[in-house]
Design goal:
The chain is elongated and about 70 Å long. The chain has a 7-stranded parallel β-sheet with strand order 3-2-1-6-4-7-5. The termini are far apart. Helix content is 49%, strand content 14%. Helix 1 runs parallel beside helix 7 and helix 8 packs parallel to helix 10. It is of the alpha/beta class and 237 residues long. It folds into 2 domains: 3-158, Alpha/beta knot (3-Layer(aba) Sandwich); 171-236. It contains 10 helices and 7 strands.
Length: 237
């Protein structure tokens, strides 16, 4: 079963926090982290109902990186999407697709929900491996924080099942792969002004595919050989 951590980034209304805790209890999730949250008081517990124990065990931290510690995959949520393939930061998958794909993950997965008024900032979105959105009417596509959490947790819960899954690449291995990719960009003298977006695009692509250990080793071998050949070619010039 996928291990999911719900992360609320700077939630502003304690009622929403309580409602998120209730939905977590409804669908079998228990780990709640909050980054610089509002005060959690009586209203939160009233909205949480029998999910109050999730509030009791929740953790409040001061930075996003603290909330993402030990997480294999980081999933961001946004109601603002892009129809331009070049805008890698805001190319999403649907909540239903996420519910299916997340079952392939063995490590801890963090799902980020942004502020009620501003959502996740651009830099926070860049930290995510996958962006997910909930298809809604274009006239009013932005859902309430707790409603969005309910839909996404429901989709994940509905797809929980015991099936064979190949051993997947670990978090540290994926980070190593991203480093090799950046080294390859250096080796081929990839244009500096395009590197950040290309690096984010590659990380998002790997996040969507959830590579197995075998796939990881194959890609790493290709990157390593390509970087070596590129450097040798420059020396011969």
């Amino acid at each position: 079963m996928t291990d999911v951590r719900v992360v609320l980034v700077n939630p502003k209304y304690e009622g929403n926090v309580g409602a998120v805790a209730r939905s977590m209890a409804n669908f079998g999730f228990s780990e709640l982290f909050m980054v610089e949250p509002c005060e959690i008081g009586d209203e939160s517990y009233r909205r949480a109902k029998h999910g109050g124990w999730i509030l009791d065990s929740s953790r409040s931290v001061s930075t996003l990186e603290e909330a993402l510690e030990d997480c294999y995959l980081v999933i961001g949520t946004s109601g603002i999407i892009s129809e331009n393939d070049k805008n890698y930061v805001r190319l999403p998958i649907s909540a239903r697709d996420l519910g299916t794909r997340i079952q392939e993950c063995e490590g801890k997965v963090a799902i980020l929900f942004g502020r009620e008024d501003m959502g996740l900032y651009q830099e926070e979105l860049k930290r995510c491996d996958i962006l997910v959105t909930i298809p809604a009417d274009e006239k009013y596509p932005i859902l309430n924080l707790s409603h969005a959490a309910t839909v996404i947790l429901y989709e994940i819960h509905q797809n929980r099942k015991d099936v064979y899954r190949p051993s997947q690449a670990r978090d540290d291995e994926l980070r190593l792969m991203y480093g090799f990719f950046d080294d390859l960009l250096d080796a081929i003298e990839y244009p500096e002004h395009r590197r950040e977006n290309t690096s984010i695009m590659f990380r998002r692509m790997m996040g969507r595919s959830v590579p197995s250990r075998w796939e990881f080793n194959t890609i790493m071998g290709v990157f390593s050989d390509a970087a070596k050949l590129s450097r040798l070619g420059r020396k011969d010039q």
